[in-house]
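During the second half of the funding period, the structural biology subgroup turned its attention to how the target accommodates small molecules. The most pressing case was zinc ion, which had performed well in the primary screen but for which no bound structure existed. We therefore specified the complex as follows and requested a full 3D prediction, including the ligand pose.
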Amino acid sequence: MEQDRAITTNAPFGGVSLRKVEREAPADGQALLSTVETGICGTDRGIVSGALGFSYNPAGRDYMVLGHECIARVASADGEGLRKGDYVVPATRSGGGCLNCLVGRPDNCSDNDRHDAGVTGKDGFMRDSFVYSTSDLVKVNDESVADVAVLTEPMKNVMKVFDSLSHITKLSVYHGKDGTLRSRRALVVGTGCEGFLFSMMASDAGYITQIVNRHDISERQKRILDTFDVDFADYSRPGALQGEGVDLLVDTSGDPAALLGMLRHVRPNGVAVCFGTNENVAPASMSGGDIINIVEKNIVVLGSVDGSKKHYMDAVRQLSAWRKCRPDAMKQMITGRFRPENTGILLARQPGEIKSVISWQ
Ligand code: NAP
Ligand code: ZN
């Protein structure tokens, strides 16, 4: 039996090692895939540091292969119109038996009977090759997007939120007098990869967009945001926030103090999206006035997790469009490429990092 290199952990205790695992053989309805690149995010590092208590190994195992952000090439496949050499992105979540899962929306799973690759009870993609159900693969039709398609998994979360917004913003008149969002304002809290993608998408949708953190960011990061007409502000500095209030707030920090503070800036009929999660952050309290603010302004507070196969497809299309019209900025989103042997990259975030990736080929 041939063997693959794989980056593994022992969830929920953590740790990281590069080990050999058996190369799998595809069954009916499965494809064999060669991994091209895997992205690293805060969830991977949280599992490795033992901070994510909800993470667990596949049944009967004392290890799990890490990684849920991936671009791979088909080595062999039967079905779904896939051919050898095609670029694909695997959808990470496998559903269970609830109604949402049964209709292809495991992102809205209602009984928690589901598994996320590299996170909860299912091997991830940080290995030389893997087999995967062909129905859970999203084909990347435009090969020129392959060098940034590792961003598809984080981007599909953004596409789901904008899909939800297209429904929520019908509750009142949300757009401006010209029928567009060009007079509307979006505020994104947090400058990680998800914050970047949310702010780029908001600007693309027409919002006057600001992204904030409570410290400065690198010049390279600012240049990318500039390309997308997104304004950055360090909100620890007085007067940094644009004054007029916002119609869309997206919190990627998971910090309740930041979220509650920013919620006070949301205008009537606005939407506040809770996206970031962080269990290890200080609690914050809400006043009666905060609740009155939400009630009297008809503010929708939306929690959103993951995305469906359709959102992966939307994400590939959006990345492909950006890769064509802003190629340099898009390439700059990948701030470092590393070899699998360099497992230290899973221990700490790199200075100025947007997306660090591991190259497998
Ligand atoms: P990330 O790189 O850790 O980004 C989080 C950002 O929030 C960082 O820039 C961090 O700043 C900033 N931040 C933390 N506290 C803040 C505060 N009080 N005010 C302003 N900014 C603050 O993570 P990511 O990959 O972009 O993901 C963003 C969040 O979404 C994470 O919490 C992740 O767990 C979560 N997530 C959710 C989903 C979902 O489906 N809902 C999917 C993927 C990820 P520093 O530079 O100071 O650290
Ligand atoms: Zn379910």
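Two results from this model are relevant to the next phase. The radius of gyration is 21 Å. The pocket of zinc ion (ligand 2) is lined by residues 95-96, 98, 100-101, 106, 109-111, 113-114 (CB under 6 Å).
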